[in-house]
Structures are given as C-alpha cells and as structure tokens.
Amino acid sequence: MKVAKFRGRGYVVFDDVYDPSDDSFMLAEAIERIVPSTIGLSLDVGCGCGILTLFLAEKSKLVVAVDVNPSATKNTAINAHRSGLKHKVQVVAGDLLAPFRFKPIFDLVVFNPPYLPEDEHDLLVPDRLRIAWSGGRGGRRVIDAFLSTFHRVVKPGGLLLLVQSSLSNCSLTIRKLRELGFEVEVVSCRRFFYESLYLVKAVRVV
C-alpha cells in the first residue's frame, strides 16, 4: 500500500490497484475545468483507487464507481470515507457497464481505460495486475468493448470524458463516437517520448 499525491491531496493506493499517473491527472484536471457543478448522476468506469471518483463527487449529486477488480472497489470506498465524501459515492464491482441496466440515466461518464498494447512479455504478469493497463494486442480490447455499450446509459445531452493514447488509435475512437451520435473534440493533449495522451470530450446529441 502507498499514498499517491495530487493537488495537495493524498490517496491510499493498494498494491494491486492502478497507481494514478499522468493519464489520471489529465482527466482529473478536465473534470475540474469542464464539468459544471450542477451534474446529477456521474459514472466512473474503472475507478481504481477512486481519485477520479472523488473529483466527480465534488461536482455531482451522486457518483457511481465501478471496477472489475474487487480490490479497486474496496480502495475507492476507503478513499471516499477518508475524504468525507462517502455519502456521495456508490461503489459497484463489475466489468465495464455489466452491472447496469442499459437505460440512459447518467449525465456524465468518465473512463481512463487500459490502453497499452500487449506483447508476449506482458503475459508473464498476473492477470489481476495486468488488467489495469493492458488493452490487448492492439490496445483496443477494453476500449472497443466500452464503446459498444456505454452510449446506452448516457442521457441525451450527456457527456463522456475519455483518455486515449496514440498507441491505440485515437482516430478510430473519435470516428466510432461520431457514428454513435456524439459531438466529439480533443480538449487536451500531453506528449511523451513514447506516446501522446489525448482527452476526448463527447456530447450525446441523438
């Protein structure tokens, strides 16, 4: 167990949970900058330690946090309790949107997906650790699974904030979102020596 720090706040991170990094921080900053303070129901997909859940809780009436890793859901619950925001957070264990009936109930969905392409060396890492960052052979296994269902739970006019990597074909994601009836724009970009990270904003218009 460790403590990750961002903006002067500390977040407990279990050993088998994704440690918040540049992608997490970029999405947290976008929540601060883009999300209005009058949001009703928000969804944090792949909540990890709960850092994004807590940023959402400061702007939402209620946040649902879901993760396929049971340790992550426990981790999020602990950080929600430590922050004094437990009353605004509901934690659910499950794979992507599987725990929810496909009804358009969410005003906002955020997702920092596992997007790194996987190679044969990654297969040596235990599944419980690898699921936090591995996107399969082309880096799109989880992203495409998410895109195939998420739109069913977003209200008309609802918002998606999604992290994407240059390693997993951001252009394809943008095209798929537009085909689903979303207005799409890249609102932030961070470049590193091995990849670029993009923050995609999509608004449901149909």
Task: Give a quick summary of the entry.
Helix content is 27%, strand content 33%.
Q: Can you walk through the features of this model?
A:
The chain starts with a strand and ends with a strand. It has six helices and nine strands. The protein has helices at residues 22-34, 51-57, 70-83, 127-130, 141-147, 170-179, and strands at residues 2-6, 9-13, 39-45, 60-67, 89-93, 106-111, 154-165, 182-191, 196-204.
**Spatial strand order of the main sheet:** 5-4-3-6-7-9-8
- Distance N terminus to C terminus? 44 Å
Oligomer: single chain
Count of separate DSSP helical elements: 6
Low confidence ranges: none
Major sheet: 7 strands, mixed
Please bin the fraction of helical residues: 25-40%
Q: Looking at the structure, what is the overall shape?
A: globular
Indicate the topology:
Elements: E1 2-6, E2 9-13, H1 22-34, E3 39-45, H2 51-57, E4 60-67, H3 70-83, E5 89-93, E6 106-111, H4 127-130, H5 141-147, E7 154-165, H6 170-179, E8 182-191, E9 196-204
Parallel strand pairs: 3-4, 3-6, 4-5, 6-7
Antiparallel strand pairs: 1-2, 7-9, 8-9
Helix pairs in contact: 1-2
List keywords for this structure.
206 residues; alpha/beta; seven-stranded mixed beta sheet; two-stranded antiparallel ribbon; 27% helix
